[in-house]
Amino acid sequence: MMDSSKSNGAKWGNLIGYIILPFHIAMHNDPLEYIRQGKRTTERKKTSLEAVFTYWSGNLIVNLFGMKVWFLLRYISICLL
User: Fold this and answer.
1) SS in 3 state form for the chain?
2) Any idea where the domains of the chain sit in the sequence?
3) Which of 13, 25, 59, 61 is the most buried (most CB within 10 A)?
Protein backbone atom coordinates (compact mmCIF):
# COMPACT_ATOMS: atom_id res chain seq x y z
CA MET A 1 0.00 0.00 0.00
CA MET A 2 1.19 3.53 -0.71
CA ASP A 3 2.46 5.56 2.19
CA SER A 4 0.84 8.98 1.91
CA SER A 5 3.45 10.61 4.13
CA LYS A 6 6.23 10.09 1.55
CA SER A 7 6.69 12.35 -1.45
CA ASN A 8 7.64 9.74 -4.04
CA GLY A 9 5.76 11.07 -7.09
CA ALA A 10 3.18 8.26 -7.14
CA LYS A 11 -0.50 9.17 -7.49
CA TRP A 12 -3.68 7.55 -6.22
CA GLY A 13 -6.43 6.64 -8.64
CA ASN A 14 -6.99 5.07 -12.01
CA LEU A 15 -6.12 6.50 -15.40
CA ILE A 16 -8.10 5.24 -18.38
CA GLY A 17 -6.83 5.22 -21.96
CA TYR A 18 -8.13 3.47 -25.06
CA ILE A 19 -6.53 0.91 -27.31
CA ILE A 20 -8.36 0.21 -30.54
CA LEU A 21 -7.88 -3.41 -31.58
CA PRO A 22 -8.59 -4.66 -35.09
CA PHE A 23 -10.46 -7.96 -35.24
CA HIS A 24 -9.56 -9.93 -38.35
CA ILE A 25 -12.12 -12.61 -39.00
CA ALA A 26 -10.64 -15.35 -41.16
CA MET A 27 -10.43 -19.11 -41.32
CA HIS A 28 -7.21 -20.54 -39.91
CA ASN A 29 -5.94 -24.10 -40.12
CA ASP A 30 -4.90 -23.86 -36.49
CA PRO A 31 -7.72 -22.49 -34.28
CA LEU A 32 -5.18 -21.11 -31.80
CA GLU A 33 -3.50 -19.02 -34.52
CA TYR A 34 -6.32 -16.47 -34.18
CA ILE A 35 -5.54 -16.21 -30.45
CA ARG A 36 -1.79 -15.96 -31.04
CA GLN A 37 -2.26 -13.19 -33.60
CA GLY A 38 -4.54 -11.29 -31.22
CA LYS A 39 -2.01 -11.65 -28.39
CA ARG A 40 0.81 -10.35 -30.62
CA THR A 41 -1.28 -7.37 -31.65
CA THR A 42 -2.31 -6.63 -28.07
CA GLU A 43 1.25 -6.83 -26.76
CA ARG A 44 2.49 -4.54 -29.53
CA LYS A 45 -0.26 -2.00 -28.78
CA LYS A 46 0.40 -2.14 -25.02
CA THR A 47 4.07 -1.24 -25.53
CA SER A 48 3.18 1.68 -27.81
CA LEU A 49 2.13 5.09 -26.58
CA GLU A 50 -1.43 4.78 -27.92
CA ALA A 51 -3.14 4.45 -24.52
CA VAL A 52 -1.09 7.29 -23.03
CA PHE A 53 -1.83 9.55 -26.00
CA THR A 54 -5.58 8.82 -25.92
CA TYR A 55 -5.72 9.54 -22.18
CA TRP A 56 -3.92 12.87 -22.44
CA SER A 57 -5.73 13.97 -25.60
CA GLY A 58 -9.09 13.07 -24.03
CA ASN A 59 -8.14 14.98 -20.90
CA LEU A 60 -7.15 17.99 -23.02
CA ILE A 61 -10.43 17.91 -24.98
CA VAL A 62 -12.47 17.73 -21.76
CA ASN A 63 -10.57 20.62 -20.22
CA LEU A 64 -10.78 22.82 -23.32
CA PHE A 65 -14.21 22.01 -24.79
CA GLY A 66 -16.17 20.12 -22.12
CA MET A 67 -17.78 16.72 -21.75
CA LYS A 68 -20.35 17.13 -24.56
CA VAL A 69 -17.63 17.49 -27.20
CA TRP A 70 -15.69 14.57 -25.70
CA PHE A 71 -18.78 12.32 -25.81
CA LEU A 72 -19.46 13.36 -29.41
CA LEU A 73 -15.90 12.56 -30.50
CA ARG A 74 -15.95 9.27 -28.58
CA TYR A 75 -19.25 8.31 -30.22
CA ILE A 76 -17.93 9.13 -33.67
CA SER A 77 -14.66 7.24 -33.18
CA ILE A 78 -16.21 4.11 -31.66
CA CYS A 79 -19.62 3.77 -33.30
CA LEU A 80 -19.16 5.23 -36.75
CA LEU A 81 -15.65 4.11 -37.70
Assistant:
1) CCCCCCCCCCCCCCCCCCCCCCCCCCCCCCHHHHHHHHHHHHHHHHHCCHHHHHHHHHHHHHHHHCHHHHHHHHHHHHHCC
2) 31-79
3) 61
